[in-house]
Records
---
Amino acid sequence: MHVHKEFDEEHLKKQMLEFVGKINQLPPVRSNVKRQYRERTVYYLDILEVDGRDVLFRVGVESGTYIRKLIHDMGEKIGVGAHMVELRRTKVANLTEDDSLSTLQNLEDAVYFYEKEGDEKPLNKVVQNIEKAVDFLPKVWISDFAVDTVCKGAPVAVPGVVKFNPFKIDEWVLIYTLKGEIVAIGKAAIDSSSLKDIEKGIVIRTDSVIMRPGVYPEYHRAQQ
Amino acid sequence: MGLPYEGIKREVISLRDEATCEDYGVYPDRRNIKQKLDLGFILLDKPSGIRSKTSAFIAKRILSPLNVSKIGYSGTLV
C-alpha cells in the first residue's frame, strides 16, 4: 500500500485494524458484477513493515474481496488517500506457498527432464493430485458399485455411503472412492447426523463430475 | 488467527466395513504421470504482468508434447 501524504504511524495502524471484521465494498467501476454494496469478511490483518509512505501488510479475507478497493477505502479512512502497489496471494484454503509452488520455468524444466531423460520426478513434484486442491471440504466415501452411476451424474444415496466426514445440509461435499479418488463434488441433501437413522434416500446431489464413466464397473441391480 | 478452512480437522464416521476391489480405479498416490496429467493441478507462481489466462495457455503449450489438451485456471486476485 502506498499512502499519498505524511501520516502518523499509530493513527494509520489503528485505522487499518478497524477493517478487520465485516466490511461493505462497492465493486470497481470496471467490474463483471452488479455494482451494489457487498458484505465481505476480513479475518485478520497484520502490518509487517512501514517504510516511508509504503506499508506492507498481510490480510486474510473472504473470497470475492477486492484488495485494491480495501486499500483505497483504508486511505480514505486514514484521511490521506492510498493505493495498491503490489499484491501476492500467499495462501488459499488448505494450500500455501510451501505446497510445491512452481513457476512456468519449473514446469518447462520438469517436462524437459521427463521427455529427454525419462526422469518423471520433477514433473511429479510440479503436477499434483487433483484431490489436494479440494481436500479442505468434507467427504463421503462411496462403495465401488455406486461409483459409475455418480460418474454419470446420479446422486449419492444412503446405501452407497460407506463412511463420511460430518457435513451440514446444503454444504459442498466431496464424493470419493474407497481408494481415495475424487469422483465428483456435490451438495448435501441432508445433514450427516441423520445418516445413521435412515436406510434410503438421497444424501448428496452431484454437481460437478470429475471421474470419467467406465473407470469402475457399471452397476447392475441383479448383482447386488 | 486464520482462515475458515485452515487447519480444519474432520472426524471420519464409518457406517460399515467395506473393502474396495483392486481390479479397477487407482489410489491417487500410485497414479503414474500420465494419469496425474489427466487429473492433476499445478500451483503456479505466475509472473506479474501477464494474465492468468496467458499463464494457463503457456502451461498448456509446455505440456502439449505430453498430450495435455485441456488446462483451466481458478483464483482471481483483484
Note: Residues 104-117 of chain A form the longest helix (14 residues).
---
Amino acid sequence: MKVKNSIFLEDNKPLLKEFLDALLARYDYASILATDSISRNFSVSKMGTNINEDTVLTERGFCTKVYDKGQACEYSFNSISKDSIPTLIKEIEERLIPLGNSVPSGVTPYLFDEVSEETTIFNESTDYEQDPEELGDEAIIDLLTRISEKGRAYDERIIDCRVAFSYQKYSKLFLSRKKDMTQNVMWASGYFVVMASEGEEIQDSYKPVSMLGGSEVLRTLENSLEGCCKTAIDLLDSEPIKPGEYDCICEPDVTGMIVHEAFGHGVEMDMFVKDRALAQQYINKPVASELITMHDGASTIPEVASYFFDDEGVLAHDTIIIDKGILKTGICDSQSAMHLKKDPTGNGRRESTQRKAYTRMTNTIFEAGDSTVEEMIASIKDGFLLCEADSGMEDPKNWGIQLMVKMAREIKDGRLTGKIYSPIVLTGYVPDLLKSISMISDTMQASGSGYCGKGYKEWVKVSDGGPYIKARIRLG
Amino acid sequence: MYRTGKDVNMKDRILAALERLHIDEYIITEDQTRSAELFFIKKSLDTRRIKNNTSYSVTVYRSFDKDEQPMKGSSMVHVYDSMTDAELDKTLSGAYLAASFVCNPTYELQEKTVNEFIEMKSDLQGKTLEESAKIMADALFAEDKDGDAFLNSAELFVNEVTTRIFTSTGIDAGYRKYYVTGEFVAQCKEPQDVETYQGFRYDSLETEALKAKVRRTLDYTLARAQAKKAPAAGNYRVIICDSYAKELFEYYTARSLAPYIYGKYSSFKLGENVQAKTADGGNTEITGDPLTVSLIASVPFSDEGTRQIDRQLLDKGVLKTYHGGVRFSRYIGAEPTGNYRSIKVAPGTTSVEEMKKQPYLQVVNFSDFQMDDFTGHFGGEIRLAFLYDGETVTPVTGGSINGSIIEKQASMQLSTEMQVEDGYEGPLAVCFDDIAVAGE
C-alpha cells in the first residue's frame, strides 16, 4: 500500500502558493518547504510502558528560503492563514533581511549566484504492508510486553529488557517557481536492549531492526533475543583489552559505523566549502582497499533515510563515493553545491522545518564482496570479532577514528574462543584502516535504528551498514 | 501574567476538547520560540535565519485497574492551531485510548503549588534578538585577529523561549527565558592543518566568557598543530579538564535519578557514601577529594509544573537526595524535583600546578568524550593532550583513554581552580592515577 497525502498540506497548498507568489514578486528566489509529520515511540521495560509522540519528528511547520540580492535568508514558522501572509512578509522584510547587519566589522554576507532549477512536478509515496495505526496501540504494546517479559525471565542477573518500536509517517510539500513536489514516506524501527548486572557494573546488549515501511518490521524483532540475553550476561565477565593493533573482523553494524562515522562525515561537502575535510584533497585518489565500493543516497537502498526529494527540493540520488578503493566524489546540499559550482546530490536535510539544511548522509553502505564469514574467521590467527556498534565521532579534518563498540570476541587460530573484552575503543587513521581491508563477506546488512548528528546537534534519521570486513585496527 | 489572545484561544480550545472527551487528568504545555540565527564561514555570513514557532503538547492520563491493581497510563501528543475541532478531538481521544494500554502503577500528579509567571533575569531582555546577535557576534570574532589560528566557521543562535504549563491539578505556571547558544571551529594550517570544535551556551550576554573561550580554543589549536604523534601505549596519571570534567560527574547525577533507583539500575542509597563504593559493591577509604555536588535549577518549573530549586546531591560523597520527575519519584517515595541540567561541584584541595608536579597526561580536547553511567567507564579519542615525562611537556594527539569512575572515584583529585561551563560550575581539572591509554 502507498502512504497517503496529508490533508493538512493539501488544504494549505493554495495559501502557500499565494505566499510564494508574494515572495517571488520581491526576491530573486523563493521556496517553501511544508511538513506534516507524525512519529510515535512505544516502549516497554521493567520501568513501565510508554506511548508518546516524538518531540523532534512530530511537526507541522514551514520553512521559506529567499535569496535577497544573492544573500541566503530563511524564515521558519508553523502557522499560516490568509490574514497572516502580510505579517509573514513583514517579518521577512523587517527582521530577517536586516539581520544581515548584525555582523562584526570585517564580516560580509556571501553573495550566491542565481539558483538554477528545472521544472519538476510530482507526487510520490513509499510502500508499506501494515500501518501501525491500523495494527493498533494495544497489539503493539502486547508484542513489546511479551518480548520484554521473555528477556527478563532469561536469567536472574538480567535486570531489565527494554523493547521499543518507533515509526514516522511524513508528508512534505516543496514549492518554488519551477517545483511543485509532494512526497509521503513511512519508516519503522525497533530494538531491544538487555541489561545484566553484577555488583556496581551494568552491562547491556542491543539489537535493532528497521525498514522503509510500517509495523511489519515487528515480525523480525524477537529473532535475536536469546543471543542478546546471553551476550549481556557474558559481558559481566568481560575485561579491558590490552591496547594494540590487531587483525579484526567487523560485524555489519560495526562496518556501518566505520562507513558512516569514520568516512561518511568526511565526504559531506559542506565540509569542503569550509575547508574542513581532508577528503577534498583525495578526489580520484586511492583511500581504501580495491575491495571497497561505497554508496550514499536516499535511493541507494530502501531504508529509513529513503525519500524522493531532499529538504531543498533536490531529487534523491544514489552516489558512488568510493569506487574500488578510489574516492570519486562527496555528497552535497544545494547551497554547498552553489559554493563549489557542483551539482547537488539530494543530501540537503533538516532536523525539522525549524532548522537549517546541511549536507547529511542518508543510507550509507559498503557493497558486499565474495568471502564467507567462516572463511574470514578461519583466516585470523590472533585477533578479534568486533560486535555491537556503540557510538562514534567524526573527524573530517584529520581522518582520525573514534569509534566505540560494545565488545571484541577473541579469535585464536581461526576460531572464536568465547572470551570477551569490553568496552572497546577503535582509533587510528581512516585510510590506514580502509586500505588494510583484506576480506569482505558475500552478504551485507544495513539498518537505521538511530539518528545522526552534525557535530552535537541536528539529528536526522539515517541508515548504514555493509558486509563483514577484515581489517587491521588499533584497539584500546 | 503573560497572555495573548491567540494563545488563550488555543489553550481554551484544548480545554474544551478535553472536557468534551471527559478527560480529567492532563498537562498542557505551550512553548513559543523566537530566534535570530547567524551562520558564518570564515569571515562571511553564509546564511541568516529567524524563527517564530508556537507549539502545544498535551499529556493525557487515564486511571484503570489491571489484575485488580490500580494503574495510571499516559500518552503525549502534539496539537496545532491549524487543527479543526474534529482533528483535535481525534488526536486527544487517540491519546486517551493509548493511555489505556500503558500499564504503569498509579501515582498522583504534581499537586498545585504556586501559580506564577516568571521573567527570568537576563541582560538579553530589553534588547531585540537581532541586537543581541550583533553583540555576541562581535564577541565571537573579537579574538580572531588574523593569527595562525583562526575561526574557520561559527553558528550563533539567540533564543527567547516562553513556556506555559497548565495541569488538571490547577497548576498555571510559566516562565520566559533568553539564552545564546552556538558553536565554532578554530583552524590552524601550519605546521599541520588541524581544527578544534567548541560549543557554548549562555543565559546572558557573556561577551567576556565567549571571548576567553575563543582565545583558549585558538591557543589549543595552535598547540595541536605542533602535536605530531600519539602518546605511547601504557598507563598514565591523567588530568581531564575543561568541559570534560563536567561529564565525569554525570555518573553521580544519573545514578541518583529516581528512575534508576526504581529500576534498580543504581544501588545508590540516601545517606550512603556512594563515592566510597567499589566495583564489587563493597566500600573503600576515600583517599582523594570527597565530592560535594549540588543540582542547580536552570528553569523555575519542570515540564510537569514542579517548582524547581537548587538541591544538594552529594555532601562529601554522601548521597543527600534522589531527583527526577513525578512518576518515578512517587514510586520510590521521594519528593518530585523535576529534571536538572546544571550542577555545581565544590572545589578540591589540589591546584592544577600541584597536579602537574609529577609526570602526567593532561587531555584538553577529545573528539567525543563518553561517560557511561551504567558501566562507569569513561574515555575517548585524544585530539590534544600535553604529556609531561618529568622533564619536558610535549603536545600529543591520537590514541585514546579508557578508565572506570567506579575504580577511581575514591582516589580522584579535584582542582582548587574553578570554571563555569554550560550547565556546570566546578573544578577546572580532575586527576586520576593509572589510567590505560591506547597509543603508539
Note: Chain A has three domains: 7-123, 126-170+186-235, 244-475.
